[in-house]
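Table S7 (text form). Paired inputs.
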Amino acid sequence: MDYKVIISASKWDVGGVTVFCENLARGLLARSVSAEILLTQPYLESKNPLPMPEDIVFSRLAVVENDTWERHWKVFMDYLESQAPCVYIPNHDYRHSCVSPRLSRRVGIVGVLHSDESIYYDHAARLGRYWNAIVAVSKVIAEKTARIDPSFAPRMYTIPYGVTIPCAYRKRPYHEGSPLRIIYAGRIIQHQKRIMDLPKIMAELVKRQVMTQWTIIGSGPEQEAFIGALQPLIQQGASVRLFGARPNKEVLAAFEQNDVFILTSEFEGTPLTLLEAMGRGCVP
């Protein structure tokens, strides 16, 4: 029997889970498994929009912004049941995953814990008993989740993120006097990512007269403050290029053009950008 896989996302914006959804859908399609990404709040205007890949099917829940949550949930359940037999992956779409107890057996549910973060453990604590399988992206996350409820153990799987790696690294010619090329790719946000640590690191490098060229890819709520913190450093001679949000294929190409990948996160699950950078020969 063929099962359709429905990957849930409230909106399409910058983030590791978004890239995970894209890679998962593309990987399933490559294996002749029917898959789509369902945007459950299509009316939301993301502050950190990401271009939608053209090779993946996107569906949009038939709701509008003024609809009640009761209508959201009914339309969502009706849609999943209309696609059954299917597999539903809630990801971090917490507003719609609450329908899990109301779905029929013809809708399988695979919950994925993407980060070592309390909101994911709370998600599993509330709804994990209704999921057919629970996937953790690291051993640590799996162990913490299993301690929440012993009944999770038979349905718990640890599947680290995977990335596509080219057959050979692109050669990076070095010339005497060339700057060290450093790249950050991710959300421009202080919570979790500690984005405001980057200007401090840049300032120390300027102080030590280490010649660098920075590439910053991404967007987020702290973008204005972040750019403001960079201005004095740029005036002192720091070389910084800001690119905003970019499709994943452009991010991968940028990793091949840089020497060092930097990540200052307070916490992560398995950072997808870190794996992608390493897979392109960019030193973490």
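Next pair, protein 2 of 2.
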Amino acid sequence: MVRTLPFSNLYSHPDKPLEEHLIGTAEIALRNLNSSPVHKIADFRKEALKKVLLVSGLCHDLGKATSYFQTYLLGSKKEKKELRQKPETRHGLLSAVSAYYAANCQLANEVEDGEERAFLSFLAFLIVRRHHGNLGHAVGEIFISSKNAKLLAKQVESIEEKKLVALNAHLQNAGLIQAISKPLLAEWVASVKDDLKEHRPGLRRLGKAKNLIYYLTANFLFSLLIDADKSEVVLGEYMSRKELDFDASVIDKYKTILNFKPTKINNIREKAYQEVIKQPIDLGNRVLSINLPTGLGKTLTSFAFAFNLRESIRQKRNFCPRIIYALPFLSVIDQNADEIEKVLTCNGLKTDTNLLLKHHHLAEVYYREDGNEFEPSQAKILIEGWNSEIIITTFVQLFHTLISGRNKSLRKFHRLSGSIIILDEVQSIPSKYWLLIKNIFQLVTQELNSYLVFVTATEPLIFERQEVQ
């Protein structure tokens, strides 16, 4: 006889048990991390990142266990209106405190270095505290006011111990090492104000060093958490990828069907195309460049190269990268997307949204998979999370994902890992941003195992010539 754990009688959302949401979020986040080719970021090994993410997922809404939040959630419209603005119903800070101490316990056998373990535990605190908002200055998150300290104690006091015991049983069954009880929560909220202050010198040192690796680590984990959180609520499950096998031959077939006439310009285009796709691919080179004058078919040529690179990575690295194609102007996105759709369609591929996605602020909120159209709320989550194999988007969308603290933008940050990122018309980027772009893309390609392809007629010196293949 299979025994099931008792229900905690706590809810995260109307009709959704709190334990179901916490465990579901952790599972989706971990599946996304496991599918990423990231082995480590700086000195943070993947196993350590998994533990941080597991704890963050399992604790991210633990603060909803308070009687204040449960009364608000299950109350009438009138009661909700009255309670919505009351600080007692907030759950982010209490959830973050739980994640901070639970992460330290979870990492005890994985990370021997005390300073590294403390930093990763702080990351769990940071991403959980801000999972409904934007990431700000990390040093500012250290300070917990006396008012908030009293509020935390009040919230813990309101938790029904029997319900927390049942919730804790589910969380430990899902892999949480640290047992969470009401007395222990009371100890944590009494200590956290002083414990967090110990991170201040270390974070200030990191800030002065201007080392982007910690920025990258925080954004990567934050992205995995918030994408999983939103996906679990709206979709209720992990969305598997549609990994299809294809290379530049799909574009060759398309060109054959079009039957281009052997004019002078078409002959030049074909010569340029052949030169690009016949170039040997060295997977050790992470930054690549395709230099073609305007009018020589950059779209088909760059996608043909990307398809070959994708297939080479799939065969030799046992990972299938997404292709993210970014352009500076909205006016050509639809045109390029339509052309790639024709390429895929003529090769018998069903161009549902999970294969080919256009994403910009004016794009239609529409998502289809295997002929099934998703509801607008679900489509929005899937589109903004870049759940597709080929994403055609704007520089604005891409750069806001790379260099931003906004929740909405950072949701798709983790999709950059293992991706082939194509920057078309890269010369349109103002020179004042070149150094920043170079620094952030160096990290993304090295630490997130990604590839960057510049497509341009006049290559800007964002990277030194010897750094580009």
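The chain is about 50% helix and 10% strand.
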